[in-house]
Every structure is written in C-alpha cells, then in structure tokens.
Amino acid sequence: EVQLVESGGGLVEPGGSLRLSCVASGFTFSNYDISWVRQAPGKGLDWVSAITGRGDITFYSDSVKGRFTISRDNAKNTLYLQMNSLRAEDTAVYYCAKHWERSSDYWGQGTLVTVSS
Amino acid sequence: IVLTQSPATLSLSPGERATLSCRASQTITNYLAWYQQKPGQAPRLLMYDASYRATGIPARFRGSGSGTDFTLTISSLEPEDFAVYYCQQRYSWPLTFGGGTKVEIK
C-alpha cells in the first residue's frame, strides 16, 4: 500500500525557517518525481515545488523560489522541503504528492505550517 | 499558465448532472488532471490526460477537452460526490491549479 506521511510542520515566526519531511512507502521511491503542494486555510490548492526521481532536477513556483529548497534522500525514502524567510502568506497545510503519468496519484495527509508572531 | 474554473459553486441535487469547466490561458494539449477534495481530506485523483479515469474512479465521472477548454462531467450525482473539484495543468512548469469548483447540495 502506497503511503506518504508528512511531518515537521508547526508554528514559526515571520523570517524563520522550518524543514518538512515526507516519508514514502509502498513503491519504489527513486522511480518517481514528487511535488509539494500547499493549501492556505479555506483556500485552493497551490503547487509549490517538485523534484525528479533521481533528485537532479528541481522546480519551484515563483512565490517560493529563492526561499524554499526541495531535496530527497532515496536511501531513506524521504522527501524534504527546507523553508527559509517564511512569511505569513506561507501559512498552509503542506502536502507531498507522488507523480504518476501526468498527474499526482497519491497524496499524504498534510502537515500544517503556521507563520505568525 | 492560468487555469480558470467555472462556476465557482454549483448547487445541484443528488441524481442531477454536474458540468464543471476548466479553461487554460494557453494550450496545454491534453495534459490536464482533475482532483476531488472533501473537507479535512487530501485531494484525490479523478482524471489524468483530460479523459482517462484514475484507478477506482466510477464511470459516472467523465473528462473531455483539449487545447484550452476542458470539462468534467458527473452524469448523476451521488451523495459522496459533493466536494470541491480542482483541475491542474501538467503541460509546463510551474504546474498550476485552477481555483476550484464547489459542488454543493441544493
């Protein structure tokens, strides 16, 4: 059974940093690209970043470029999102989502990041 | 690429047909996915490549379109279909989502 489990969310002050993790199981992790997608409270889905299966190519939305870094450790079946210079508008539930064909077929349950003083 | 979904809210009764629209600001060929999201849950993949149902998705869900105009049709709404639906383009980076359509019980 495919599972994605996010962790690392919490309350952080504006300007602070946080690192999210997503532990995968039930599939060959290194074979699949993975995305981070976020959802602000009461709002829609917002794609944040993606990384190829080998971890050699990364992509970012304009809103996080230069502040967030996506990475992965295929030996640990784990995806990361290092978030620096956090802003109030980064407050959201952050999901990791496995790519399949041209879609995301499995999603974690999300971890809540709150940026507030 | 900007995706515009309409309407924002669709008020229908169980058994009725739902027609949801997603329009892209430029051509995305057929590289469009649809997701369903219920309150407190992660999104669930419904359709990929505009018209292919994901595993386990009932036949009452049908996706169509290519280029810039896409439609998700639910032929006869079941109680469990009342949710928010999002489209996502997979044609170019950055990936983008539409703003969503809420299908609510009338």
Write a brief caption for the model.
Chain A is mainly β and 117 residues long.
Question: How would you describe this protein?
Answer:
The complex is a heterodimer of chains A (117) and B (106). Chain A is mostly beta strands and 117 residues long. Chain A is built from no helices and eleven strands. The radius of gyration of chain A is 13 Å and the shape is globular. The model of chain A has no long low-confidence stretch (mean pLDDT 97). Chain B has 106 residues and is mostly beta strands. Chain B is built from no helices and eleven strands. In chain B, strand 9 (84-89) and strand 10 form a beta hairpin. The mean pLDDT of chain B is 98. At the A-B interface, strand 5, strand 9 and strand 10 of A face strand 4, strand 5, strand 9 and strand 10 of B.
Structural class of chain B: mainly beta
The Rg value of chain B, from CA coordinates, equals 13 Å
> What is the β-strand count of chain A?
11
Q: What pattern of helices and strands is seen along the backbone of chain B?
A: EEEEEEEEEEE
Number of strands of chain B: 11
Largest sheet of chain B: 7 strands, mixed
Largest sheet of chain A: 7 strands, mixed
Helix content of chain A: under 10%
Largest inter-chain interface?
Answer: A-B, 23 and 26 residues
Defining traits:
heterodimer, A: 117 residues, mainly beta, seven-stranded mixed β-sheet, four-stranded antiparallel β-sheet, 11 strands, globular, B: 106 residues
